[in-house]
Amino acid sequence: MSRARVLLLNAALGPLDYRVPYGMAVEPGSIVLAPLGPRQLAGVVWEPERMPSDAEVGDNRLRNLVSVYDVPPLAAPLRRLIEWTANYYLAPPAAVLRMALASASALDGARSVTEYRLTGHVPDRLTPQRAQALERIGERQGLVRELATIADVSDGVIRGLVKIGAIEPVEVTIDDPYPIPDPAFGAPDLSPDQTAAADRLREAVKAEAFAPILLDGVTGSGKTEVYFEAVAEAIRAGRQTLVLLPEIALTEPFLKRFAARFGHVPVAWHSDLRQSQRRRAWRAIASGEALVTVGARSALFLPYRNLGLIVVDEAHETSFKQEDGVMYHARDVAVMRGQFEQVPVILASATPAIETRQMVAQGRYEELKLAARHGGATMPEITPIDLLADPPPRGRWLAPTLVAALTETLERKEQALLFLNRRGYAPLTLCRTCGHRFQCPNCTAWMVEHRLVRRLQCHHCGHLMPPPRACPECNEEDSLVACGPGVERIADEVAALFPDAATAIVTSDTLWSPAKAAEFVGKMEAREIDIVIGTQLVTKGYHFPNLTLVGVIDSDLGLSGGDLRAAERSFQQIAQVAGRAGRGEKPGHVFVQTRETKAPVIEALVSGDAASFYAAETESRRHAGAPPFGRYAGIIVSSEQLDEAVTTARAIGRSAPRVEGMEVYGPAPAPLAMLRGRHRQRLLVHARRALDVQDVIRKWLGGLEWPRGVRVAVDVDPYSF
Ligand code: ADP
Ligand code: ZN
């Protein structure tokens, strides 16, 4: 009799054993369908010795596997990666497996599906809901449910529109092959510096071995062009490349750029895909047919059949850290995947993380440098504006110097970018009479006013409320004031100052899909936009040659709070947004508004001396035993009942093992003390680098029990403090 150990796609379950029925062939990695109670669930066959089961069942009580999916088995390197990730981040292996199988939706057998799109026929009279649906769907296509979600209406509204001929069905097959990128198409002439770096990368791809490489080049130095040469090499060898980007908003411009270089777009993988696209992409990735995949974090665990190269673009970005579910860092897992797959991993960044620089300093990562911008473009000049000496008029946020620079830029018919990392109109609404502040009922966060959509919104849980007319506390009318600026408020100020200028707000509210991002890029390139006002979303990767002025509205914002990485992150953010200026023939100028012109971050940016800033930051981390010299892990205890969260967290704290080289702090309220209606307490574990802190935590928590309503999650190498 043959039995198989199966890791099922249910994070609450450990692996279970099954009987392999006569005539069925399985091996480790086979993707199978297995019975569980009255249901059936997908899972993957695993080596029993690598996946201990605590539910050993005798042969006579085993249930039969139902079937084997007609897709390639998960290869050993990916299985090792799943085990490693589960171990390192203290997550259930099944939760990691889910990411590899894309929640199994890709396994579904159907080869064709019916999707829907607008016909272009718009009936004369439409209910507001139907009108809203037609407007929001626009060019998009998808299942009824997908369109309903996009349009924020019920399925019935979509079906109604099908009935009256405004929406029509289309058959989509998921087996259409992807075109093969052409490595010779649109190859650029590289500068000598670029050629040297590209040669080394090509060599690394040819070597078919693990090689972590930091591609460290100033903004606009041609990092993308250079790593494209490595991608070309992998394509020639018929091997797959994965390019990870920090945001889905960046995929669309990337696709365009890729097509200009390789003649075809690569396969895109992100959360905005329709289900049929997801299925098609997953299958092509698993079969090895998809030669280049570009995607956000979640593309990291896909079952590439024949991986030859991994690129992490903008590798310093904090959005590579996942804060929900499996709390992993995609940059670090990418390096591990490179190790298991024996392929090179390129980390591209103009502002690498201190952790990454330290790996270079220790000789564990190789470094390739591009010191100058491509094609004679110069680095922008950076000038601080002292908000105390040169303040904006009352109730305004742009200092006179910045306004003057904007005026000149517009006169020269060039484009400008104003950066403020705050969505919405105002971060806080306050009652002038009684001091009441609008707070989210579910989270420790203010309700942020969004004037464009006329709502107050919580940026953590999404809770919405209509804009209040009177204060709920004292009932006073006309007493509510918006405090502080968000991008919408800056846009108002710009509109008042420059009524003829065309402006655009760029945040995750306005660029919520790759299509919207593409539209924005198109308008910038066609110079239909004069002034962009944006959050961190605009700091990344964009290349607009006519953009010559950048204004940082509040550079002190990032420095507040006791975050370990605050200074580093602030430096990276401003250097990145500054890097959008003067990328073409015209020189760029950056103005940084600040109340602290002497802050090390500002001085480093102005002098261009990043090296001493990094050296000082690195030293202070070393001194504090902070990453990368020591390690942290957060143990987050949450419950809907505050006292339950506190009591449990204290009990866990009291049972902390005494281990040489490890301290446990807290519990204290977590960085977000309340999130989505759950109170969160955190214990912070600080340990020496060499200590196997996961093992300690696993044994520590493994021996404990807590009430049903309590959740305990571990955040290894946390990003929020
Ligand atoms: P980075 O990623 O380092 O910021 P990019 O790769 O975006 O830099 O390059 C900046 C701009 O210069 C892009 O428009 C790119 O196409 C162009 N560029 C860089 N190197 C070359 C080259 N060798 N030939 C032609 N254009 C180049
Ligand atoms: Zn909230």
UniProtKB/TrEMBL annotation:
Residues 204-370 form the Helicase ATP-binding domain. It catalyses: ATP + H2O = ADP + phosphate + H(+); Couples ATP hydrolysis with the unwinding of duplex DNA by translocating in the 3'-5' direction. Binds 2 zinc ions per subunit. Its cofactor is Zn(2+). It comes from the Bacteria. Pfam families: DEAD, PriA_3primeBD, PriA_C, Zn_ribbon_PriA. The keyword tRNA-binding does not apply. One of its GO terms (molecular function) is hydrolase activity. Zn(2+) 2 binds at C440, C443, C458, C461. Zn(2+) 1 binds at C431, C434, C471, C474. InterPro entries: DEAD/DEAH_box_helicase_dom, Helicase_ATP-bd, P-loop_NTPase, PriA, PriA_3primeBD, PriA_3primeBD_sf, PriA_C, PriA_CRR. It is an enzyme of class 5 (isomerase). Keywords: ATP-binding, DNA replication, DNA-binding, Helicase, Hydrolase, Isomerase, Metal-binding, Nucleotide-binding, Primosome, Zinc. Its EC number is 5.6.2.4. Initiates the restart of stalled replication forks, which reloads the replicative helicase on sites other than the origin of replication. Recognizes and binds to abandoned replication forks and remodels them to uncover a helicase loading site. Promotes assembly of the primosome at these replication forks. Component of the replication restart primosome. NCBIfam families: priA, PRK05580.2-2. Belongs to the helicase family. PriA subfamily. This is Replication restart protein PriA.
